Amino acid sequence: xxxxxxxxxxxxxxxxxxxxxxxxxxxxxxxxxxxxxxxxxxxxxxxxxxxxxxxxxxxxxxxxxxxxxxxxxxxxxxxxxxxxxxxxxxxxxxxxxxxxxxxxxxxxxxxxxxxxxxxxxxxxxxxxxxxxxxxxxxxxxxxxxxxxxxxxxxxxxxxxxxxxxxxxxxxxxxxxxxxxxxxxxxxxxxxxxxxxxxxxxxxxxxxxxxxxxxxxxxxxxxxxxxxxxxxxxxxxxx
Length: 238
Known about the structure:
The protein is α+β, with helices and mostly antiparallel strands. It has helices at about 25-30, 65-80, 85-90, 130-135, 145-150, 200-205, 205-215, 215-230, and strands at about 10-15, 20-25, 95-100, 105, 115, 125, 155-160, 165-170.
């Protein structure tokens, strides 16, 4: 297996459907990381969130393309007053999205995304899009901005001189946000408290991983990771 540029281990798989090569960060995918939103997450701002319900929703979400943006607009139209605390507020402002610096983002209201139901809301605190999708029996990633369900899983795509793509799938780090990443007071993938899931990432984030890489490649990845676990003995005392 190839060596990680960060000193770790990677699994390499070829995706013959689009003639690309995928590299998977073994340490991250086999770790017990999970999102601890609502379970003690202090948020990313300088002052910890005492409610544990703001998380990384303190800023408006950016969109990857027009399709991503339209998907959220359509999902927002399905939300009821019981599911979305700030629905009326968004309508007063002309919709839940706005342009900032030439980019479309979700609006914010009193220090957080307008889709964030605040602590104590009868319909449930957290992302209204997530809540609405769950009520509709749909995977939340179908309704949410792409960045909101992908983070902290990151795809790094590199194209060589002949058009061949190499895709690195790994944990999102501060540096991936550019200079703004250093402004985060707390970032989950750096903190041991977020590594407490009952299952490893490749299982607890199955829906997200399948969406990013496709079912066939995901199943090949799982096979490799589980074969590796059997073939790699655990040293006594670890």
